[in-house]
Design goal:
Bound molecules: adenosine-5'-diphosphate, magnesium ion
Strand order of the largest sheet of chain A: 1-2-3-10-9-14-8-17
CATH topology of the largest domain in chain A: Lysozyme-like
Number of strands of chain A: 19
Number of strands of chain B: 15
Largest interface: A-B, 38 and 33 residues
Oligomer: heterodimer
Radius of gyration of chain A: 25 Å
Number of helices of chain B: 12
Strand content of chain B: 15-25%
Structural class of chain A: alpha+beta
């Protein structure tokens, strides 16, 4: 009893730590801008969301963008504009009108332009600064020391952060091996938080992060469920596997997870294609279609491959029960604002479409055995069911759109540090039909967080046309290395090491876990 | 001897029966079937767990609907007869050894009939450490007012008091016990500071910037927030109960009568007409001065206050802020102090008894 109380206390203290209390606020001029925008949000809950997101993103924006008041204001203005558009699509226009009317203050022109081209400018400025460092960083710290409007305390904090970018201590990497005197980059979160999780080109803000409207179970019988959005699930094939339990890895630090990072929560949806044989979808082949689909379903169930399977008639089958893991993405990586996930079997729900987007090719030795088809075979019925299933799962588990992604984008070869070990649905997946941002245009955590790369085989599979997110991620990596003033290859290696350290640690945990499975389960409860 | 005891027992039974029918009338008029309708609902839920009252808030057909129960109980001798009356009239109770514990709104009616005081499972905003049955009782009241979640993971936010220097660790225990109980009912339960809840409820127009004060039964809770981010929270252990006790003790009146006068007749803008009113004025002043001084000190001590650009509003809520003239007195004492921040206005919540619950609901909707 006493012990239990202790444990509860500890849990509580942990919970309290991450409450908003110690989060620094932007200076008053910035707060005024946020308030000007907030007036446009009609409803208290939405307004809370707006404020929270702007403040959160401001907090995560690299200090270098917040050096002086004009810059701070510009950043805040941009964040507020983004968020208001997200919450009330079309608000951008209204804001412009209000600026003209003088209700909302007008942006200062120069910083705005500078901010737009911030990536290139920062690289140049940093390079110049670092060159001029000469005797040490001390003088640099003086240059960027507290600006008039930031308090002494926060000013110092900022200085430290920037300092960290230039030269951060090696021990961040644990037993950092022979790095000589090369500088080490700070593998901290992406600048600008979520915003930069998307490629600069992607401007679609029309997809809400969460689905608000309820979807509920309307009817349930021994073999099926009907949900209020029309989703029907056939439940007769459901199998058990092992309960979900996994570690979240902190995105903004290099530390290893602790017990507090242990979770059994479902945080995302991973889409797969079965890449199985495809029979012509015509009435004459009805019997074969049914027979093949059934056999495939049974195979999938026997191997506990996914949580859901959608056959070519759009029927949705539950395979592994939701609170259990399924073996759908052994080696894979995805990340959201806070966490990186290295075990999507446990953290995500696997949804498989019976279908194909790659075809085998007869090739010369060493050539690719697969090549991307122009269009996938996933049909309208499957898309409709897939959307219903997605919506329902997102409501049920409060899944953000950012965590709905396809297998091909997350799959890795951990030893070779290569992306795209599996490629199913890596191209041509109709994210928009599912109410999701196109992840093939987003930054890939495998690259930005762990420095993974791809090889020529991979390029051949896609006939040279890999998805754009890879290019954006590479560019991002390059600019980060530039900011840190270390060669790209070196930076990549550091990130690779971060991955290996975590990956090995997770592997070891899993081994220990299976030894002492019960105990871990008890802890997570 | 035997006869007298029987007579006495018979008298008791009559009293109890009368009390029960009174409660029944009260219930059918005010409470309706909150529980039944709540059960079908998957909307987020806000709960204000106060020392004297528990208030439940949920959106229904676009409006916020509130239900409440007194956070009180009374223990009466067990008899089959009493129990059947309680059952017939659906008065909340449970049996413990040789007594029946009546809790919630019914407790006060019983207490008045039997001319005794109700017990409180909470004290100064936290689970009452001197009351062995506290946890059982509060769970009972919560079960009555908060139906199990219609859907697992429905968002629920409940209020907790701000830290008090002497009771930091007690809050943790209090919060955990309640959160666990509500989570077991299928909710995704989270706590919110009571003062912040008041800000969420009342200061939307001010972009959730300002000071929220909830003056309740067991304590007063205060929070200063900027753009919804709490910067300072604190509480004082004086509230309506303190006033009742103090006035009763100096005037020799019974507690319940003092409270009745306070709630029905007190007007702080008028000259007191008798001893009780005079004492009420004195202790109300004391409460307000403590509050204002506490606020000033907290502001002076903290290093977390961001730079102030414009004056912030103060909003008053809670049962103890209800008397006519409370706002005016608060302002008067505030003006006497040299305050580290500028105050734009002082106003009272539109519905002081429900502000915390409404704010908790907004917090729950925000999460959900
Ligand atoms: N009209 C009123 N005038 C003065 N005090 C009141 C009035 N109504 C309620 N109270 C007092 O308010 C307190 C309860 O307020 P409430 O906000 O419900 O408290 P809590 O949050 O502690 O449950 C009690 O002390 C009660 O006597
Ligand atoms: Mg209250």
């Amino acid at each position: 009893m006493r012990q239990l109380k202790e444990l509860l206390l500890q849990q509580c203290l942990r919970d309290r730590e991450d409450k908003t209390f110690l989060k620094p606020l932007p200076p008053s001029t910035c707060r005024r801008i946020i308030e000007e925008f907030a007036v446009l949000v009609p409803d208290p809950v939405q307004k809370l969301r707006f404020l929270n997101r702007v403040l959160e993103r401001y907090r995560k924006t690299l200090s270098i963008y917040k050096l002086s008041p004009p810059f701070q204001e510009t950043v805040v203005r941009k964040l507020a504009m983004d968020e208001i558009e997200r919450l009330c699509p079309g608000a951008r226009k209204k804001v412009r009108k209000l600026i003209r009317q003088g209700t909302i203050s007008a942006p200062r022109p120069t910083p705005w332009n500078i901010y737009k081209y911030r990536h290139s400018i920062i690289t140049i400025v940093m390079a110049a600064l670092v060159l001029g460092l000469g005797t040490g960083v001390a003088s640099f710290r003086n240059i960027i020391s507290p600006t008039p409007s930031v308090t002494q305390e926060s000013g110092d904090e900022h200085a430290e952060e920037i300092y960290g970018l230039v030269e951060s201590p090696d021990e961040q990497y644990g037993e950092a091996p022979d790095e000589g005197n090369t500088k080490v980059a700070n593998v901290s979160p992406l600048p600008g938080g979520k915003e930069t999780a998307y490629a600069p080109e992607s401007t679609d803000n029309s997809f809400p992060e969460y689905i608000e409207e309820p979807i509920w179970l309307v009817e349930e019988s021994s073999d099926r469920e009907l949900h209020s959005n029309g989703l029907r699930i056939i439940t007769t094939f459901t199998v058990e596997n092992e309960p979900r339990i996994y570690y979240r890895f902190p995105r903004d630090s290099d530390r290893l997870p602790t017990e507090a990072d242990l979770s059994s929560k479902i945080v995302g949806i991973l889409y797969h294609a079965s890449e199985s044989d495809i029979i012509d979808f015509i009435p004459e082949k009805n019997q074969s279609l049914k027979k093949y689909s059934k056999a495939l379903l049974k195979y999938v169930c026997r191997n506990k491959f996914y949580h859901y399977f959608i056959n070519r008639f759009g029927q949705v089958f539950r395979v592994v029960r939701e609170d259990h893991a399924a073996f759908h993405a052994g080696n894979s990586v995805w990340a959201d604002d806070e966490n990186i996930y290295l075990n999507l079997n446990h953290a995500f729900i696997g949804v498989c479409f019976e279908g194909k987007a790659f075809e085998e090719v007869k090739s010369q030795p060493g050539g690719p055995k697969l090549t991307a088809m122009k269009t996938s075979t996933i049909n309208e019925a499957q898309l409709i069911s897939g959307k219903e299933l997605t919506d329902w799962l997102r409501v049920k588990y409060h899944i953000c759109q950012g965590n709905c992604v396809t297998h091909g984008l997350v799959s890795i070869n951990p030893e070779a540090k290569l992306i795209g070990y599996h490629v199913d649905l890596a191209h041509g997946f109709p994210y928009r039909r599912f109410g999701l941002k196109d992840k093939s245009r987003c930054l890939l955590p495998t690259i930005t967080e762990f420095g993974f790369s791809h090889d020529s085989y991979f390029l051949k599979v896609f006939k040279g046309h890999v998805w754009p997110g890879i290019g954006y991620s590479e560019e991002h990596l390059r600019s980060r290395a530039g900011i840190a003033n270390i060669p790209l290859a070196e930076y990549r290696m550091q990130l690779n090491r971060r991955f290996t350290r975590w990956f090995e640690w997770q592997k070891k945990q899993k081994e220990d876990q299976s030894k002492d499975h019960d105990q871990i389960c008890a802890m997570a409860d | 001897m035997t006869r007298r005891r029987q007579e006495k027992a018979g008298h008791r039974k009559k009293e109890i029966a009368a009390a029960a029918s009174k409660i029944l009338a009260h219930e059918s008029s005010s409470r309706g079937s909150a529980q039944k309708s709540a059960r079908l609902d998957t909307n987020p839920v806000g709960v204000d767990i106060g020392t004297s009252k528990i208030v439940f808030a949920q959106k229904k057909h676009g409006n916020v609907a509130f239900t409440s129960q007194l956070n009180a109980f009374i223990s009466v001798e067990y008899s089959k007869f009493t129990e059947s009356i309680l059952n017939q009239n659906r008065i909340n109770h449970y049996r413990m050894d040789e007594s029946l514990i009546v809790y919630g709104d019914g407790a006060e009616v019983f207490a008045n009939m039997l001319n005794t005081e109700t017990g409180r499972p909470m004290r100064h905003g936290l689970l009452n450490p001197r009351e062995s049955k506290a946890i059982e009782i509060i769970k009972g009241i919560l079960d009555d007012i908060v139906a199990p979640a219609a859907k697992r993971g429905t968002q629920l936010c409940f209020s907790i008091p701000g830290a008090h220097k002497e009771a930091e660790s007690d809050i943790i225990y209090h919060e955990t016990i309640l959160r666990r109980h509500l989570s077991n009912k299928g909710y995704n339960a989270r706590s919110i500071n009571e003062g912040l809840a008041v800000i969420f409820s009342e200061l939307e127009k001010d972009n959730f910037t300002g000071i929220g004060i909830s003056a309740g039964g067991g304590m007063c809770n205060v929070c200063l927030a900027f753009l919804s981010v709490p910067v300072i929270t604190f509480s004082i252990r004086k509230g309506g109960d303190y006033i009742d006790d103090a006035v009763a003790s100096v005037t020799g009146e019974v507690n319940t009568r003092v409270r009745a006068i306070k709630e029905r007749e007190l007007d702080l803008t008028e000259e007191p007409r008798n001893d009780v009113e005079d004492a009420l004025h004195i202790y109300y002043d004391d409460l307000i001065v403590t509050l204002v001084k506490g606020l000033k000190e907290s502001l002076a001590q903290t290093s977390k206050i961001p730079d102030f650009d414009k004056p912030v509003p103060i909003v008053l809520s809670g049962g103890s802020a209800k008397p006519e003239g409370f706002e005016h007195r608060f302002e008067m004492y505030l003006n006497k102090e040299d305050f580290p921040i500028d105050i734009s206005e002082i106003r009272t919540a539109s519905d002081p008894l429900y502000a915390t619950a409404k704010g908790a609901l907004i917090a729950a909707m925000f999460e959900g």
